[in-house]
Amino acid sequence: MTESQPPRRRAPGMSPDQRRAMIIRAALPLLATHGAAVTTAQVARAAGIGEATVFRAFPDKDALLDAAVAEALRPDTVLAELAAIPLDQPLADRLTAAATALLAHLGRLGAVLAVAHTAGRPGRGRRAPGVAGDHPPGARDEAATATRAAVATLFAPEGDRLRLPADRLAALFLAVLLPGRPPLADDPPTPAELVDLFLHGALAPAAPEETMTVTLNHTIVPARDHHAAARFFAEVMGLPVLPPAGRHGHFAPVRVNDQLTLDFMSLSAPEGYHVAFDVDPATFDAILARLRATSVPYGSEPGAPDNGRTDHPLCARGLFFRDDAGNLYEVMSPA
Question: What is the total count of domains within the chain?
């Protein structure tokens, strides 16, 4: 009882070169799977042709194997895959796709060359005349140059952020991805370049976006006498009183820091505000010393600003004190 065979179709109308190329494409995955044990009958079935058609294209199985090796050495397929990577993808996705294609190409090439070696054919170089995939002298360098250029194209959209020229980054990328297979034998990456790439990457830091920062410029503090209130606050806090401000000089400003001033303004019936400050431990010690020296009451809670304590509920040390208009000042220190 014979094994049933799938129906064969008549070989389509092709030129001899096209038919040979079609047979080679069918043979390559079979060689990777079955190795040198693959038969011409299996190749014929994969190609959907009769086995006799295989022998009309190639004198024997060895000639087919030679042609398959030559085809595996050609970079056409992987170059097409690299060219098909969309440039609008993020750079990481582009390079991941490139690495996947290149490693798959290398895997196919390695499988076919291993078959050739097993069959005892490395270096024979015998090919059927006109077989697609002939590898003329210098083709390897040309293939490496084309691969490097294709990878360089993937870096192009980030041109203004690249730390090195795109062509050089492509060479480094290939050197890292395919160690032992330099992209150009006459221009290998230096150890310093590889270390720099490892430490600092391919892209320069993105320029920070220009954004408007919101800061508090000044706030008005009510007072019975704005000059006296400003002097009292400034003396306790160790801050400078600035010259009168406002159209009629009705503000007594105290400079708190480079961004903020408290502008004291006299009112007939001021209602006290609450203003809080973070200070460092040394500044806190100085403020506490001035309060004690001038006998100004202070305390650890807003409801008890005269209990003489600094065990603040929200920080390591803190205190509250008031002025004569009822403004409640809070000072907090981390230690």
Answer: 3
